[in-house]
Amino acid sequence: MTQTLLSFGHGYSAQALERLLLPRDWRVIGTTRNEDKAAAFLARGVEPRIWPGADIIPALDAATHLLISAAPGDDGDPVLAELHDAIAARAGQFEWVGYLSTTGVYGDHEGDWVDENAPLTPATKRGQARVTAEAAWSAIPGLPLHIFRVAGIYGPGRGPFAKVRNGTARRIIKDGQVFSRTHVADIARVLAASIARPNPGAAYNVCDDDPAPPQDVIAYAAELLGLPVPEAVAFEDAEMSPMARSFYAESKKVRNDRIKDELGVELLFPDYRSGLRALLAQEG
Predict the structure, then answer these.
(1) Mind telling me which InterPro entries this protein's record contains (predicted)?
(2) 140: how many CB neighbours lie within 10 A of its CB?
(3) With left for phi above 0 and alpha for psi between -120 and 50, is residue 195 left, alpha or beta?
(4) Is there a contact between 104 and 135 (Cβ–Cβ < 8 Å)?
């Protein structure tokens, strides 16, 4: 049987996994709401489905693997809202199901370390929605579910260089603030390693080895570009959107031992410095 991934909300991280699977003769079916994105999928060898909208049941019937990247909304998880019963009825059909969550489920730990056994005490509405979605997926009997709690994502097209170049980057200083992050290529490697070694019921933190204050990342990007380090602004004085400000409600360092010890993952980019250097080199 052809290995077939059905990817719900086939976005940035899922497309990085696609780049690993297609050369291995996988069939990849990806959902999107956007006709232009569907055309781009097709050009890369991914079978697009406009969903919600198109009949997704034939794709579900063909799938050996599921990946859920779609974020929960006001009505909960969008995939389960429409397809809970259909997925539950086919639970035994799937070899692997992956749910992309967030390290936001752990909430604020005042800069201390957390691992996958830490309590889920989200400090934001987004984090709470992810906890609820994780529980809803976990409650489906017989589903070979794997949960991936992903830290701040960066990669091609998603890095600090553009803002540093155009002068809009700021080094926002909040005492004790630290974030974990991960390069999108390493997310794909973790997912592929899990597909190769399924362990239903497992949760994995997906992040690099070097949690760091966000202002350090901005400063290093400026250094790489040979540009002045952006000004420092106290968190209390910074003009920020409510979304941006909410990220500063949580400070923690996330352990990633399980992806190494259990899945054998060797990170391509174990810290933001190596990741940013590679991005700049990739830009040419």
Answers:
(1) NAD(P)-bd_dom_sf
(2) 16
(3) alpha
(4) no
Report the residue count for the chain.
284
CB atoms near residue 43 (< 10 Å)? 9
Tell which residue, 274, 259, 238, 44, has the closest CA to residue 159: 274
**Extended strands (E) in 51-92:** 65-68
Closest CA relative to residue 126, chosen from 152, 148, 156, 105: 105
Q: Which residues contact 211 (CB under 8 A, 6 or more apart)?
A: 178, 179, 180, 181, 252, 253, 254
Question: 22-79: per-residue pLDDT in tens?
Answer: 999 999 999 999 999 999 999 999 999 999 998 999 999 999 999 999 999 888 999 9
Q: Which two tokens stand for residue 67?
A: 């990946």
What residue has token string 């489920």? 105
Tokens of 76: 């909960």
> Domains, the chain, ranges and CATH?
4-154+181-208+253-269 (3.40.50.720)
Helix or strand or coil: residue 63?
Answer: coil
> Which H/E stretch holds residue 113?
strand 113-114
Give the integer Cα–Cα distance in Å for 219 and 194: 34
Q: Which residue has the tokens 């800069």?
A: 111
Instruction: Identify the three-state secondary structure at position 59.
Output: helix
d(CA 9, CA 18): 13
- 237 DSSP assignment: G
How many other C-beta atoms lie within 10 A of the C-beta of residue 272? 26
| Sheet of strand 145-150, all strands in order from the earlier edge strand to the far edge | 47-50, 27-32, 4-8, 65-68, 96-102, 145-150, 203-206
